[in-house]
Every structure is written in C-alpha cells, then in structure tokens.
Amino acid sequence: MKYVDEYRQAARVRGLAAAIHAETTRDWRIMEVCGGQTHAIVRFGLDQLLPKRITLIHGPGCPVCVTPLELIDRALAIASRPNVTFCSFGDMLRVPGSTTDLLTVKSTGGDVRIVYSPLDALALARARPDREVVFFAVGFETTAPANAMAVVQAYREGLNNFSVLVSHVTVPPAIETILSSDGNLVQGFLAAGHVCTVMGCEEYHRLAVKFHVPIVVTGFEPVDILEGVRLCVRQLEEGRAVVENPYARSVRPEGNAPARALIDEVFETVDRSWRGIGMIPASGYRLRSRFRAYDAELKFAVEKIVAVEPEECISGAILQGRRTPHDCPAFGTRCTPESPLGATMVSSEGTCAAYYRYARFATAPSSCNVREVGAAT
Predict the structure, then answer these.
(1) Model-level pTM?
(2) Does residue 119 sit within a domain?
(3) CA–CA separation, 102 vs 93, rounded Å?
(4) What is the rounded distance in angstroms from the CA atom of residue 271 to the CA atom of residue 198?
(5) 318-372 tens-digit pLDDT
(6) Domain that includes residue 108, residue range
(7) What's 82's domain CATH number?
(8) Contact between residue 86 and residue 112 where contact means Cβ atoms under 8 Å apart
C-alpha cells in the first residue's frame, strides 16, 4: 500500500536498529505516548530489535482507557433511558462501568448505536426529532475538531434533540504530570504524531526545556517508530533536550490552524480526571457556555454520578508505565477482551489488548522492561 509499505521496509528497519545499537552506550528509558504506537511496537516486535539498554515504557496514550469510570457510568445512565439514542465509536461499547457496559445495555433493549463520525449522530438527530440523540465524544485533541464541528452544526440548525457527552483529554498536561511525579522513570518521549498533526509542536518546547527531556514527534509505522527512538537516543547520549519532528510528512510546527480555531471556539480547558491516574489540571475540554445546551451531562443531570475503581485491576499502573500486563495476575484469565476488568484490555489502543493479541504467552518480566515481553506471535 502506497505511503505505508515504504515505512515497513525490512532493510530500512534493520538499518535503523543497527544505528540505534551503534549509538547506545548507556541505559535509557523512553515512553511512547500513543496506544497506536504501543500496538505497532508489540505487533512488529520492534522492542526486540533494540539494545537491551533501552527500555520502552508504554504511556497513557489511549483516550478510551483513560476515560474515568464515573463518566462510563454516566454514559450508561443516559443510554438506558427509553427516549435516548446513544451513539458511540465501537471501542467504547465493551469498556466496563461499575456494573455493566454499553453493549449489555444495547442487548437489553437500549438504543445504543455504533457510528463512524459524530456527523452520523447528527444525521440521526435530524431524522428522529422525537428522540434525544447523544454522541459520546471521547478522544485526545485528534478527534476534538470533528466533535466541535458537530456541535457547531447542531447550534446553527437549532437541533435541540442533539447533545454530546464530552470526555476529551489533552496530551501535554499528562506528559507534565508523568515528569513531575515522584520516582519518574521516563527520560525521553515519542510524541503522538496524530495529535501533533492537529495541535502542532509548540506546547512541547516548554516541557523539553523545563524537564530537560527530549521529545520526538513520531508516526505509527516501524520505520517511523525506530527513527523516533534513534533521534531520542542520540539526544540523550549527547545531553540535549529539544523537540524534533521527523514526522514532517504529516505534522507542521503550527499544526492545523483551522482545526485549532474550531476547538477553541467550542471548547474551554478544564481540569479532568484520568482513569487510573487521577485529576490532571487543565488537561481536558468541556463545552463553552455558548454551547452548554448541548452538554449531555447537564441535560440529563448525571454529573453527580461517582464511581470507585475495582481493586483487582492494575490498569492505572499500566497507564502510568509503572507495570506491564504480565504483572497482572488476572491478565488473560479473569481479564480478557470478552470479559475485561479494565479499559486497557478492551480498547483498540489499550496496552493490555496489544499484549493479549500479540504477546500473550511471552515470559512475564521481573520489572517494567518492555523489551523483554515484546515478542509478536
């Protein structure tokens, strides 16, 4: 496939791996932020190509996984109402709430639908003025422009039966929280290329300077990821800490200006709770007052629903890069994609899902050295 195969060429992958081996003289710990990058690393066995001195740590880069439990419960409460058509991307349907999930609500008669765009939900609202249509707006900055556009369009058309349940989170505050935490292990970052395609690289320069940490904007194919690792290792070895963008075929320094303007028009920044991590200041979006009539939490009065995480699930430690799925006694037994304890097992970008699919039978590590457990099956 054009523009994909070029970034999976075995010779280029081997050459980059050899370059990384040649340049690595010390132990380094690098976190890839995005769950899509995690899946590529485990799927293609890229971690096995790296020197033993390099540890890849999986970060909280899965928006489904970090959606807080109470917000899932609020979604369930709304979706269970008889006059509601609840629309979501498919990977949210199996994410467990406190007692059930959206797929179970659907199986017991709830009108829960999988859509491919918030505009699909908007079309349903137009077609069924007798129904309340709610879209579950989950994601990082990547999906925020499309969700903002749906709200703006509903506002312009006066569609009073459309609303969104917002669970948007932003990446730079999460990186800052990780770097600020006691016992932080991360020395360099592979930033998520799709987020930077929208938002650009400007927000990362401050973090690189403040924490003296290299941040390399990285894509999602094997060549992209290994090039990102190589540049990050080179900076670490040389004692430098800057933002680099080898993913320039997609990312401009300023990002996508119209998309950023649309986000700013519709959303305002707020403190947001991340599942398994806790509250991160100024790390989320909510609708501005002008569009507050389209806020499903307020419309259906579910904002006071709270929840407690199950003690058995260690997804919080996994999302912070402190543990791996093989550290969990429930992994692959009591916790599977068909019966998940946490979102990291069910999401298409979740670390546990990646390990279950590609590295389920690998030997469990004694620490969080991801390189030891990355064998693709």
Answers:
(1) 0.86
(2) yes
(3) 5
(4) 21
(5) 776 778 888 888 888 888 877 777 777 876 667 888 888 887 776 544 333 333 3
(6) 65-170+255-299
(7) 3.40.50.11740
(8) yes
